Amino acid sequence: MYSILIWSLASATNQPGFAFTPPIFWLTVGIVLSAIDLFIQKTQPQKYRFYVLMMGAAALISSFILWRGSIAFQFDWALVMYEDFDWQIFYWMGISLAMSIWIRPIFIVRKKFVIPEATEATTISEILPGETGMVIYEGASWKARNEDCHLITPRQKVYVLRHEGNTLIVVPDKLIHINN
Q1: pTM
Q2: CA distance 151 to 128
Q3: 168 neighbors 145 (Cβ within 8 angstroms)
Q4: Residue 168: beta bridge partners?
Q5: Using one digit for the tens of pLDDT, what is the confidence trace for 84-130?
Q6: In Å, how far are 114, 161, 170 from 134, measured between CA atoms?
């Protein structure tokens, strides 16, 4: 498969034998970068995953564009390979950046933090009705907003109803016990 692709890329140059042309260069770079990403995938932190794959895919796209351009416009590879190589790198970096911004996030699986319904927390500070304060929830301090019309005192047990962003929505435990 790889040899057929190299042969078709070399034949697009109208040269009788094998020539190391820009499409073959970018094809090789793309395959190498994609293979490297497969091998180092588990060693990278999740926030850095798929960058190398995006650079490899961009190199493959650059190879395809140069190959199709060579067929359509009959490039002189000596000009393209040596004099305009900086433009190829510029286009490759632009395609890599675009893919990293718009396509890479599709592959990243993010864990959603879910707060179970009506779990307990303890207040650190006084929380006025409708205002925010601080609570200790599962060993960490969180910003919390009082959804009740009663004052919540420090070190009082509260129930977490839900979260809105990084703010927990809480009600005093007295409210829950009154309704039961």
Answers
A1: 0.52
A2: 5
A3: yes
A4: 144, 163
A5: 778 888 989 999 999 888 887 887 776 666 656 558 889 998 888 88
A6: 19, 15, 10
